TrEMBL record:
<dbReference type="InterPro" id="IPR026017">
    <property type="entry name" value="Lumazine-bd_dom"/>
</dbReference>
<dbReference type="InterPro" id="IPR017938">
    <property type="entry name" value="Riboflavin_synthase-like_b-brl"/>
</dbReference>
<feature type="repeat" description="Lumazine-binding">
    <location>
        <begin position="118"/>
        <end position="214"/>
    </location>
</feature>
<keyword id="KW-0686">Riboflavin biosynthesis</keyword>
<feature type="repeat" description="Lumazine-binding">
    <location>
        <begin position="16"/>
        <end position="117"/>
    </location>
</feature>
<dbReference type="Pfam" id="PF00677">
    <property type="entry name" value="Lum_binding"/>
</dbReference>
<comment type="function">
    <text>Catalyzes the dismutation of two molecules of 6,7-dimethyl-8-ribityllumazine, resulting in the formation of riboflavin and 5-amino-6-(D-ribitylamino)uracil.</text>
</comment>
<keyword id="KW-0677">Repeat</keyword>
<dbReference type="InterPro" id="IPR023366">
    <property type="entry name" value="ATP_synth_asu-like_sf"/>
</dbReference>
<dbReference type="GO" id="GO:0009231">
    <property type="term" value="P:riboflavin biosynthetic process"/>
</dbReference>
<feature type="domain" description="Lumazine-binding">
    <location>
        <begin position="118"/>
        <end position="214"/>
    </location>
</feature>
<dbReference type="GO" id="GO:0004746">
    <property type="term" value="F:riboflavin synthase activity"/>
</dbReference>
<dbReference type="InterPro" id="IPR001783">
    <property type="entry name" value="Lumazine-bd"/>
</dbReference>
<comment type="pathway">
    <text>Cofactor biosynthesis; riboflavin biosynthesis; riboflavin from 2-hydroxy-3-oxobutyl phosphate and 5-amino-6-(D-ribitylamino)uracil: step 2/2.</text>
</comment>
<protein>
    <recommendedName>
        <fullName>Riboflavin synthase</fullName>
        <ecNumber>2.5.1.9</ecNumber>
    </recommendedName>
</protein>
<comment type="subunit">
    <text>Homotrimer.</text>
</comment>
<feature type="domain" description="Lumazine-binding">
    <location>
        <begin position="16"/>
        <end position="117"/>
    </location>
</feature>
Length: 218
C-alpha cells in the first residue's frame, strides 16, 4: 500500500519539499490580471490525485493549486496557480514563456523518505548562470548569487536551484559551482538553461537557522 500524499506541515510556514524533482511540466498559459498572474502548467505525475489547496513546488516556488482541469490531447492534466505580483517579480517565473519547462515536486508526504534536503519553497533570491558547460559525462554549473544568499553557501553544503537539491562543489566570493550528473541534467529543466539565465535559489534551511542562532548570541 502506498503512502498517502499529504503535505508535511509540522513547521510554522506550511508545506515542505525535498528538492527531488518528480517531473518537468510544460507551461501552457500565463495570464496577468489586476490582482494576480494565472500560471497553468501541464503535468502528469504531479497531477495524479492532486487536490485544490495543495502545494506544488514550481521551479522551487511553493505555489497553491487553485484548479485542476483535463486536457483533450497529449495526456496529463492542467494545474492552475495564481501568483502574487511579489512572487512573479522575485523569481525567474517572470522570464518563463508558454512552452517552457518547469521543475515540479509535490509536497513531502508524511512518512516518505527525505531524498534531498529540507526545502520550504520560499525563494531567497535569484542567481545568474555564468558558466554552464559539459565536462566529460557531467556538466559544470556556476551561478553568481546575491550576498543575501552567498552568506549561507558552504563547501559541500546543500542549496536548491530551481527547486533541485544540489551539493555545492566550490565557493568563491560572489558565486558557487556545482557538478551536475547526467541523470539530473536529463530529468530536470536544467537541460533548457543557458549562460545568462536566471535561476531561483533557496539556501539550506538548517544553515539559516544556525546563522540566526549564532548572530543572536553574538
Amino acid at each position: 500500500m502506498g503512502i498517502e500524499r499529504r503535505a508535511l506541515s509540522g513547521y510554522v510556514g506550511g508545506s515542505m519539499f525535498t528538492g527531488i524533482v518528480e517531473e518537468t511540466g510544460t507551461i501552457e498559459r500565463i495570464k496577468p490580471s489586476v490582482k494576480s498572474i494565472e500560471l497553468v502548467v501541464r503535468a502528469k505525475i504531479c497531477a495524479r490525485g492532486l487536490k485544490l489547496g495543495e502545494s506544488v513546488s514550481v521551479n522551487g516556488c511553493c505555489l497553491t493549486v487553485v484548479k485542476v482541469s483535463a486536457v483533450k490531447k497529449g495526456g496529463g492534466k492542467l494545474v492552475h496557480f495564481d501568483l502574487l505580483q511579489e512572487t512573479w517579480n522575485r523569481t525567474n517565473l517572470q522570464s518563463a514563456k508558454v512552452g517552457s519547462l518547469v521543475n515540479l515536486e509535490r509536497a513531502l508526504a508524511v512518512g516518505a523518505r527525505l531524498g534531498g534536503h529540507f526545502v520550504t519553497g520560499h525563494i531567497d533570491g535569484t542567481g545568474r548562470i555564468i558558466r554552464w558547460e559539459r565536462s566529460g559525462q557531467d556538466h559544470v554549473l556556476e551561478i553568481a548569487a546575491p550576498a543575501e544568499v552567498m552568506r549561507y553557501v558552504i563547501f559541500k553544503g546543500s542549496i536548491a536551484v530551481d527547486g533541485i537539491s544540489l551539493t555545492v562543489a566550490q565557493v568563491s566570493k560572489k558565486s558557487f559551482r556545482i557538478w551536475i550528473i547526467p541523470h539530473t541534467f536529463e530529468v530536470t529543466a536544467l537541460r533548457e538553461r543557458a549562460v545568462g539565465d536566471a535561476v531561483n535559489l533557496e539556501a539550506d534551511l538548517l544553515g539559516k537557522y544556525v546563522h540566526q542562532f549564532v548572530s543572536v548570541r553574538e
